[in-house]
Amino acid sequence: MSVLLTADWCSVGKNEYYRKFEVYDMEWTSIFNMDNVIVTSCSFGGPLAIRRDPKKLVKVQGSGKPTISIFTASGEFVSSIMLSKPVIHVGWSTSEDLICIEDDGSVSSYDLFGNHLHTFSISEEVRMTKVIEAKVFNSASGTGVAVLTSTYRFFLVNSIKDPKTRTLPGVPGLNAPPSSWAVIARDRETKILVARERELYFLSPNDSPVSVVPEFSDRLSSVVEMAVSVNSNQIGLFTDKGRMWIGSSDLHTKYCEVDTSHAYRPLQLAWCGSDGVVGVWDETLLLVTQKGDTLTYPCDSRVHVVPEVDCARVISNTTHEILQSVPSVLQKILRINSVHPGLYLLEASRHFQRRSHKADEYIRLVKDSLPSAVESCIEAAGYEFSPDNQKMFIRAAQFGKGFVPNLDPEPYVQMCRVLRVLNAVRNPKLSLPITHVQLRKMTTKGLLERLIHRRHYFIATEICKHLKLPPAEGSSHILAEWAFYKVAQAKQDREQVAREIASKLGKAPGISYKEIALRANHYGHTQLAIRLMDYEPRAREQVPLLLDLGQEVPALLKAMESGDTDLIYTVLLKMHSKISLKEFYLKIRNYPLAKSLYIKYCFENNNKELEDIYAQESDFNAQAALHLREAYEPKNSGIRETLLANAQQSYKNIRNDFMAGACDEQRKLIKFQRNLEDKFHIEFYGLSLHDTVEKLLLKGELKLADSLRTEFKVPDRRYWWLRILAHGKNRDWLGLEKFSKDKKSPIGYEPFVDVCWDNNEKQEAQKYMNRVKDDLKVEYYTKIGMLEQAAQTAFEQKDARALDALRSRCGASDKQVLEQINTFLTQLMSKK
Amino acid sequence: MSSAHLSGGKINIARVQEYARKHLFALLDKIDGTKEIFADAVVGPVLGLVSNKAMFREHNVKNVVQLQGGNVMTSGAKNVVFIISTKLCYIDWVAEYVHNEVKRGNGQEFHIFFVPKITFLCKKRLEDRGVLGTFGNNIEELPLYLFPIDNDLMSMEISSTFKEFHLGNDPTTLHQTAEGLLMLQSLFGAIPRITGIGPAAQRVADFVKRLAVEQSCCQNPASSSIVPSQIDQLILLDRSVDLLTPLATQLTYEGLIDEIFGIHNTTVKLPAEHFSSSNETSTNFSPEVKAIILNSGEELFAEIRDKNFSAVGPALSKKAKLISSQFQERHGDKTVQEMKQFVSRLPYMMANKQSLAYHTTIAELVMKETDSSHFLKALETEQELMNGIDTDKVHPYIEDCIDRKQPLTKVLRLVCMQALTNSGLRPKVLEYYKREILQTYGFQHVLTLSNLEQSGLLRVQQNQRQYTVLRKALRLTVEDNSEVSPTDISYVHSVYAPLSIRLVQHLVRPNGPRALQDVIGLLPSPAFDEIQPSLSGSPISSQASGDSPRVVLVFFLGGCTFAEISALRFLSQQEDTDTNVEFVIGTTKLINGKTFIESLSEPLTSEHI
Fold first, then answer.
1. Residue A272: helix, strand or coil by DSSP?
2. Cut 0.80: pTM above it
3. Does ipTM exceed 0.90?
4. Number of A–B residue contacts, CB under 8 Å
5. Nearest-by-Cβ selection for A596 from B170, B223, B606
6. CA neighbours closer than 13 Å in the CB half-sphere of residue B251
7. Within chain A, which residues score under 50 in pLDDT?
8. Residue B83 β-bridge partners
9. Can you give the pLDDT at residue A616?
């Protein structure tokens, strides 16, 4: 078994192994000749872009227009892009967009499915001088582009997201294309290494060129090819003498220099992780390790190499393979003569499964180092691509785990989860041939982004669930991305799309329907955007967007539904400014809430429109109130009667006779008051009827007061009160007495007593005591201090309780009265 | 540090205060340098409920001034902060002030905080007045909805809710209420059950549900810890369901103080001459006025506030005896230890003595009013009406009041009571009253009358004898109830048991709303009862464990009276009731008959007023 496990291993130098294993059988079969095409891919298992190699002569097929075809890593066709002009270079961005650079310096990006995303031009100078070579590079700040023009000048764009062109200094004496060049993007600083035959220069935007002389054992004449590792820390140079120089990317440190004995420049030079450089020649693949050891693989046909952070992918016409330095933990466990605890554990587990007693022996061998054995088995499982091998290691780890009490199960569980994800994405259907190391490097989030980019929404959400990511980071985000994709599709029925989106997204937390609607609108699907806004639960998001989309009525409905009056006002005023008043009124009259709020708004802003609205609505009550308010505005005091007449008319229209009558009466009163003012030259205007009559009475104008009384039908009761109080105020006691004898008082004679008493006229008050109602007599006698009479009356009325109460009112000076009361009381008692 | 009188209740109202403070000072601290605050007439007083002078000083606020129209002097602080509600007229004053100051060129920086949030109309008005640019980025929102009043009481301090909704169909403040309730839920957990009666209540319940959905989807439920529910039920009461109660004269101690002198933001202002000039100099009002803060932090007041006034006298004298006996103790033979104990209790006893003195004085002042014949006469009339005696005819006492031109609000209050207790007046009677009022008090009150009619306070008789039925079904009048040791909530008005609270008594029962519907189909709108799904999807079990009482938040939309609050507190204290509940009270405003009628008044401005 262990023999089989290491079957694809090749030893390189001392104690070092490389392995090359197949991950996919390519789906493509003889569509094209590998010799005549250029394959471009990007790190982390990127898809393959294939275009014709312009240097090769081939038979024209199809339209002859330059075409780029995109395939998955397992060789399944995805899309093709038809270009109008030949491209100089093709590359991939970090987010898996295809970048095409044309000779005029225009940089276009396309998504995986061949949809054009955007284009920018590097600079006018580049356009004039034409690009002859270009490279796409990835750095910490995103994806950049470097171009070389026909005037042998370099231009750099550090990030295509935010294209800013930097011009690099010219290489001294460069009057022919450089023999080779490379972009080194490290620590936010991008440099270009240029080889002019044997001279090497570093170019950076704000510096003059720096000449570097790496240490070569042989006199070199020209560097013809160079390759930078994915992490930009190492570089490999290939000279025309067939020597390979490997060192640090600043060229200060040399790791090795090897004679490859290849006379020609390689077809491709690329790094395998950061362990070694791979050169591709027609029928061989040569690996040179950092230590200077070499390994040759023969090839049946032309291959293309894609560098990755920890390996290189080798793509041929039939297979997709991974070439990598065997991870150390695998080496330790599986190499010949290994005594690693991991190996013993593996053996123990195997024997255990075979039900062999030897399992026990093996376990005993590693008893002391079991935790580390388990740990290495878990780790080793992560490096295996074949599920069978993974299972083998995982089983061993599980077996070993059982012998270690209190072992943290987390790494084991985590590895099982990760393996499940890795196996899922490595499936040819998804074809993301990434290693565990790559996954760690790109993070789960990065993986999800890739899957979303490839529109594998379902598997992405499943992965989220499997890894138990919180919805806001995971599934909600994916659903939103799916919705973004969905709304970008032009052809589908909007109703169906909207429903589909809503049913999938539901009320998932962290989903913003507003964002999706905005995206739909961006793609010109306004109707869909409007439809989608129905699902946005937050009115504060919903309403403004609908307004922006020109949907006033839906916005108004949504605003009213929410009850947030602020939003309703926002919509109303926007509508008001956009359409004619007439149309506006017609629209809002269907919505009582909107109408009332608009009326309130007009009211608060003293808007003249109110009258129109009330008239249109035939709301005469409100109309009348409006007239009334107007009538009493200080500036309108001159025309108050007219305005009152208007109000009266409005009230008449709704048959509110009382109010109409009241208005009429008020008009009469005002007329009266004006006459009075003319007559007496004192102010009457604005007084109530009551006060007017009082004022007249106080002036002694009895006749006028009387006429007002009849005119306005003042009830007797109130008129008597007025008369009595007026006499009191005027201290006209004679008049009061006369008045009391005039007619029978409708309010009794108590008020007469009261008014006199209140004015300290005890004598006058007594005059009316006889006519006070019998049951109030005791109270009134008491009130005006005639205790004796009070007692007498109470006695006559046989009211013992009143007498009792009176007794408590008696002070020290009322001894006589007190005695009298006591007598009365005893008399009353005895009678009983 | 929060005010002591707010905690100790069933839910900790001090947290509402802390919440408000946190937001207020967070905004203030964003501003560098000295600050002067201009607050409007609505916000200014309530700022005192959440903060105090010392705290403002700590946050570099020089002083707090009430915003007024016209020219105002400034203290020359580096920053001027306006804290205003969303009323547009305040913005005009702000704009006027800012324009003047800019002209003067003192180089001040201007800030404006809107309570509780900035509206589109406010922003537009700022723009129209040409000051939007002056404020620039200094426009903030101060999300204060509810203000803490006592350990079981919160108020929004908005007096216009009833008028705006029932007269103008404007739900703005109802929406605000819903937002306030959401804020409460964020502090005290989701409220599982929402019950209520009345159109406004239904609206608020709908808004609460809607806002909860809006909030839950923009929030990450995993990140925000779910607060366990501390409130079991919310009862929303629309004032329009019970218009009668606020009109009735309140006869509890606190209610009477409010009726006679008016309590604003827990403070009553009384003529200072009645109070011996003590060494306490906490007041900064004019010397003729003494401001006394009334809250449960004062032991004596907490004891007597909810009592019927006739029980206050005995309670005070009992307290007086207790205190004097406490002071007497020191004459007994004492060990040094005992003496020390006595001394340590001294400050507490002194405080008690002081508060006894205050309340004796206040009670005397109240008594002066309640003994007057017009008070007694009016009360007698009220009770007659409540009992359904002679509600059909023009009432002689009301007529008398009009004839003698007694205050209009008093007259309107009685007329409205008659209309309600008679389930509408006969058209003749109503017209007579209206005519009399217009002739006596002037035509300018015509819109006030029409407002009262529109809001249902004054109305013409319909076929149904609504009040008569309700009075029987819900026992609204209870004759034989002791005022001193009451057994029923009717003690708060001596005869009348507030309809609102009777409804609450029904609504707290598990099947209450439906049962209520069966008993009386006469309520203006049906009661509703909804179980809110919790954020996690399953309904929260509302059944509190057996012995601990359920906490019920009663929220009055359109204001509530102190008598109603007292009645609810009375119910909380009853242990033998079939429903073991503790009430917490929320309201849009604390009202009484006078302020309620005034909130609906609209005297036409004339040159004489």
1. strand
2. no
3. no
4. 139
5. B170
6. 27
7. 1-2
8. B39, B113
9. 79
